[in-house]
Design brief:
Helices cover 32% and strands 33% of the residues. By secondary structure, the chain is α+β, with helices and mostly antiparallel strands.
Amino acid sequence: MNAQSILYIPDISGFTKFVTNTEIDHSNHIISELIEIILNANVLNLEVSEIEGDAVLFYRKGDPPTINELFEQSKKMFVEFHKHLRVIDRDNVCQCGACTTASGLSLKFIAHQGEIKETSIGNFNKLYGGDVILAHRLLKNEIRLNEYLLMTNNYFNSAHKESEKEEIFSIEDGKETVENFGDIDIKFISLSKLLNEIPPISLDDLDDNKRNFKLLVNINSPIQFVHQMLTDHKIKLKWVPGIKDIKESSQINRVNSTHTCVFDNLEIHFVTRRNEVKKDSMIYGENIELKSGLSFISDYKLVSVDSGTDVYLKVTPGKPKYNLKGIKKVFWILKANIVLIVLNRSNKKSMKYFKRFVEEEFRKYGD
């Protein structure tokens, strides 16, 4: 049986260029995150028919949402989408093309009212029919904007209410010529002004001038390549002495990402705390947590030099979990300093292995 329904498609623009010009695994993971953001911002309780790679096909049978309701729904998804892009940009550690260009993605919406037919496939209702085809074809249009809400007149005339306050947005008229459908009258709303409504993403204020970095090694490889090898958690299996396994590792390394290194009689938990990229230097920091309750702050500083990359390191004890006083505090400081000496010796050894590993990898795969 045919039914009248709104068809609503949020579409992530720039996706094809994103996945063809950058690392496929990270780009797919970022798109999955963004699709989840869109799904979680579904305040109109629209049904999901399909997740189509870079887009979601929503629908809802019966009377369509009003234009104001649809605009507010689009605004919610748009703002949450761009907030997440800014968080990625702030917390990004990985310097691959996917992670460093994600902020260039954009979001547009298509809304059309028409007849649908349904068939059940798994947990989704597969939609088909001419109006479903039309809604998808309108993703390719002549609107000279990157981010907008496109509404067919079929939807607009069905949803318009005299009481709506359309002064909250500016509606423009247009016409699209669609193969096998002819001329389709549309209306569209630019969403670019909504970027001004995205709250600022806070940044931690970290002062590097007080950090006494010590030079560990010079690596005959470019700084970007060294950074990539240092910040890829799984690669630690290839250069950290004595490591047996990496577990609980985040898919993409960003600020607050975690991973745990497993040794014979020891597990060390790492939390990424910072990553700062400048013209000729980078700083990458982690919190190191031991099961004994001791914690440390580890900051690597990479500096581009004529001979490749100098790697500096500063490790300092973290704060105790509890407010210690008297002899307990003295004992904690003593224990932390002893472990710090062991860590520094281990780091020097690890960096020698790291240098050899990176230089060999660069000879095989570097540009």
